[in-house]
Fold each of these.
Amino acid sequence: MKKRCYLLACLGMLLCTLLAPVTSVGAAVTWPTTSGYPAPPSFGDVDGLFSPTMGDSSLLTDPTSGHAVGLEINKDQANRSGAIWSKAPMFDLDKDSSYTMYFYMGNKPKSGEGMGFVLAAKPAAPKKIDTGSLGVWGVDHLPPNSKPQEVADTALPNSFAMVVDTRKNGTGDPGGYEQLSDFQSYYFGTGYPGQANMYRIDYPYWMTWLYFKINNPSEQYRFGLGTQKNLYETPANGKWHKLQLDWKKDNLGGGTLTAQMTITRASKPDYATEVIKWTKNDIQKYFSQGSTDPAPRKLYLGFTGTTSDVFEPHVVAIGAMPEAATVNGTVALMRGAETVDATTHLKVDDVLHYDYTVNVKATSQAPWPESGTATMNVPKGKYFDYLKADGTPAKPGDTLPIKVTIGNSDYQAQGKVQPDGNQIAVTNMPQIPKGATATVKFSLPAKVKHHGLLETTPVQDKPIGTITGDGQTYDLKTPAGKDFLAYILDPETGELVLEKVPSFVFELKNGQTGYRNPTVMEMVKGLPTPTTTNWDQANADQWLTNQQGREPTNSTGKVLSVKDTRPTKQGWHLTMQLSPFTLTDNSYVLGDNGNKLGGKARLVLTDQTAQIAAIKDNNNATPVKNMAAGGTDWSLGTQTGNVAAYLGIEPTATAKAGQYQATATWLLTNAPE
């Protein structure tokens, strides 16, 4: 690779889908007959609301729409543990609300163990699950001299549980929880799994006793934290049963939770009701992550269950929930007008853009987000750069203006590149008025960066983005409903490029700040003086120099730079040859005494402190830089400071006044010498 430049020497020189309003869920979807469970009295589309957090659990889907309509906590199998939690906190302690849930526990004469309905600060699981724990309580057997707090430490933290226990434990038998109750085979209980006074440890076998309050006057010594109501008939009777939750807030930060269990049976229904009052301090005590942490005002809703050598299925359907905003979003990766998909081949420097679309339907009661603050987190592929307005890669901490469009109106948001450099947090998102439906759109430009991959590589990027508002986070999907972006990266061959070469105008330093043209006599005597044969910083002012910053009219710039994007990085070699300095009308070669081969001038390239190379004006190629294998890019100078170059003239018998020029030819080869 060659480049030429001219040198003058003068004697004058840059949303999973959330629930649609479900005040009465029902007709839009069908119950999957292949589930093996009868259809509940009422159910609805809860797609995107809940997510299994244990392997034994799954969502039951409507075969027509593919949307979730039921929650299978446990299959009808032995020794299983299951859990399904809401994806976002949904039980709002600052609003009156009502929830209707139906549950099914099979039809067996010998059932067990049971399931829990849980409100918690965040989805979690006990550190250890006993078959009798129902997925919420602490461990059963502990070593002698253990304390109730040690049981609580192994339970579901920061939570309130409502349980239906279908297997009789206790009566001093090892292998299960002792229940301080009236010892019926099944009951509806409530309690706080993470609180020490929910448990007692007692003989025999150092067993854990669930410590329920008892209202029976003859049993007043039982003053544990939980409550328990016996059920008349087992819920494992082949029928669906109902749990109704009603929350009434007070004006002091607390409220009253009424939980009514309705067991369907052949005669009249069996009811069990608990009324639980929480003060603001109770909410702090039971649900805060730590004693000094703020109490959460929205709780996650979860369902847990366990089986043992006796077992039953645990299935839940949602009958009714408070009205909620509908939020869903998509992201598409585009190359121009082409949608990038799993068959698209991308090359280094391909220009792309992410197109984001968020659909919001605010409730009739409040705008979305009600807090006024919505944020988006939008990761990019690790092989891409986000681009600033000037087309340069965005770096961590950079803030990018983002034009957000809603209908025919534009809004100004901003994105900040996060410390990992791979994602942008988008803030200042517009608020959607209550009752309104809106589609929010914006784009972010990106570019395939140098990646060094030597083979064709299929890529799947995940996650692809979220939007958060009012404490709830919704996952973005692709327009095809996938949670990842797929494409193919072609191997990078890279290239070795001599990006820039400098041009120079040489003059003599004159005093502290000035520059002047050398005289004919100075040229005849030689510059620098004959006694100075090598350049160094100490004698720099005796040489002709380009440090005044001037450039010739046909300048190629001030920088010398080599760019090596080859993944193999086998090294490179750069040379320069300089033609003889000649008057611009070609009438005279410097130092011509019958010899036009030049050789009277010597150009020295430096990094301001040390000599890089010295090149005579005799057309001989001279090494400038030898980059060993494994090396990378290299440059000298900047556009404001240029390459520091110096020119020496040997004594010559003659010199003619005028402007001299020479041509520099640069040769870059793809391996070191």
Note: The chain has three domains: 75-318, 326-489, 496-669.
Amino acid sequence: MHEGIMELMWSTSHLSGGNLTYVEELYEEYLRDPNAVPQQWREEFDKLPRVQPTVTQDVPHSTVREHFLYLSKNQRATAQALPVSSVSSEHEKKQVRVLRMINAFRVRGHQIAEIDPLGLMEREDVPDLELQFHELSAADHDTTFQLGSLFFGPEEAPLKQILDDLHQTYCTSVGAEFMHIVDTQEKRWVQQRLETVRCHPEFEPEYRKHILERLTAAEGLEKYLGSRFAGAKRFGLEGGEALIPCMDELIQRSGKAGAKEVVIGMAHRGRLNVLVNTFGKNPQELFEEFEGKRTLETSGDVKYHQGFSSNVATPGGEVHIALAFNPSHLEIASPVVEGSVRARQDRRDDPEGNLVLPITIHGDQAFAGQGVVMETLQMSQTRAYKTGGTVHIVINNQVGFTTNKREDSRSTEYCTDVAKMVQAPIFHVNGDDPEAVAFVTQVALDYRNEFKKDVVIDLVCYRRRGHNEADEPSGTQPLMYQTIKTQKTTRALYADKLIAEGVIDQAESKAMESDYRQSLEDGRHVAKSLVTEPNEELFVDWRPYLGHEWTHSYDTRVDPQLVKELAAKLDHVPEGFTIQRQVQKILEDRKRMGSGAMPINWGFAETMAYATLLAEGHPVRITGQDVGRGTFSHRHAVLHSQKDGEVYVPLQNLDDDQPRMTIHDSFLSEEAVLAFEYGYATTTPNALVIWEAQFGDFANGAQVVIDQFITSGEHKWARLCGLTMLLPHGYEGQGPEHSSARLERYLQLCAEHNVQVCVPTTPAQVFHMLRRQVIRPLRKPLIVMSPKSLLRHKQAISTLEELTDGSFQTVIPEVNDIAADKVKRLVLCSGKVYYDLYNKREEQGTDDVAVVRIEQLYPFPEEHMIEALKAYKNVESVVWCQEEPLNQGAWYCSQHHMRHVLAQLWPTLNLEVSARPASAAPASGYMSQHAEEQETLVNEAINGPQA
């Protein structure tokens, strides 16, 4: 028997041996009329799998008997009166029309539903929902028809009753869109949940009082802030107060279903209300923020961007809830939440998503207008990014900043139409009907838990104060705000309803308001289910990574025997696994590299970095376009059998109890995918989390993530992150879109040791750089200008000893045995151009020029650079050489660091520069021009400016 039913049976019945019959009788009653059984039983029965009722399944016995009697009587009467063919033919035609009409209500009933609390929503006529359209009329009202697949209880009913029930279900406070779902089981599930209670279940009086209490809290906070901080921006929830009981129901119900964590993302509207009334933030702290108190020893952020976390008590135990930090970029928090949720699910070994629930709260205009919404929905069922379904709540104010005309704000009927692309059911609900909101919340969460897919609640409401409290909305929405001025609040409407129905009296209603306001005055927590002494086992433990000062170096050496053992495992493939010929050659070469018989290339060193980290207990996650093979075919971490297409990942088969190794090709997105990986990295401090761009310049499609989260998240929100970005970069003559990863943009964002920007040029460097990123307890994002041609460059090699005994060098000194006192010219550079400079010097036989590589451009390693240069006593000129145009690359952002070093060694020397001419485009699209520019800049760097 269903576990929840067993528990409920023992808690509500004393019959011991007889309580199975008791449950069966209750279930029969539920099947006849769900509202006839107590709410707690109805909720448990709702969870049971349901299929189309038949004579032998899910139909009360009495109903079956009555149906057979009806049929037999009808057949006898028909046989005695008229020829069967003529009567049944006409009736059957109408029966078909009735079934067609039923389907029309399921498909289009939402288009006339009363979902707008202001009554201003422009609705077109829907002829499909009229009797005449289906060749029926009022004359058929008393005729009994079969209900077909309807879950209304009886098998047949008069047409008028069918119509009333259809209107009640699909055309009142709930407008349901679900018929676009392809899966029949999912559609039937939704139909059963909506139709059995006509979208209007009868809630217990105590639960209705609870809804009112939550509405009182939502309204009470807004009123208090409005009176105490008049005119201050708060992006209040006024008009959408039903969000607070909705959030309460989601969290409590998810906890009852077994969830241990809930992660929430939302933009501005209602955020302060959620922080106080859902998360339990102390109101006094919020008041101090309004008064300007500084709470972080950093730049901080405005109060309606702040995140928060707490623990709450639910019927299923304690649940940790977290609100993600969010900048003013609206929907960008959504993929960050998904990444954080996936990390928590991986930590809990929860592949189905039963233990961690994502909830994202959207604005209506943003949900329709922001492309990252589509990207986030698109990732929802992919292997690398799925989280078991997300509950989306749209706070539908029916207006953006000042734009409310549908023909201006979108090209679709609803702001939620984009969700249909993943066949998510969408429940439009009138925000002034809090019981309808509670009902669709229950259905939405249960759908997510049942099918592990996304679901949308479109909370149709309004904003009472305009875009923010300093804004005058009637200047652009005069008619809407004339209506709003006379509109009673959601709480007032619901309180009047409960008083009229005798659930509470006026005194109880007033007492709720005064009690809440007194709690605010006293600075007490006002979230009813808050756990004041939380279970810390539900938290992610960041303590080992806090309080560390910046260090350039760290011990990243490994035991040579470990490298040899891992190399053998990486080269092993299962019996009968047929590898493609070129890939087989790569594996054979790596086998020789692992034994020291062949110089090490980039692919081996990088893969060995991952293998050694896994062997030392650190999870590794790599995503991005084509990461399995690598865009430039160097990695081949994922092998494909040429015989049957089967996949084998050696890094996932190093040991039976190794940490999680995740490597997946991403779908063609930068913004959502990078945001997801940021969220993942901020929740998994002990893992190496990598996003690799297909080409480095494609990362500019995710500039919002880079600007608002990766480079500034720690300073704004004290949010640590160890994310690594691999950005292929290098001038190979491939044109403006495949040359530059826009190094200059990252360097412009560098300050206060916020990120690391590295340009490694050898396999040993990438090995130690990746290991340093995890082994060193400091958690800073790492931006890597990774190579393309160097992946197979004959000179870009390392020895096995450099892997096992070396470390990451922020500066690589001159490698040739050149006498220091002979050096007259010093060339500083980063990246691939080093090999061109080296070869030009060797070609000319020049012995008075030293070439020094700066492998870490930020934080700039001044001490290491001084150490690398101080031996050169007779230098006459120093030049910085870069492949990028003069207005791009490292020159403008890093020259002051280099000048500072030179001033300490040679105060009279000026720093020269050799680069491509300043350009609006990153690179030329003509190979001949590329080659000419490259020859010029390399020649000038080695020999000085030519006359």
Note: The chain is about 40% helix and 10% strand.
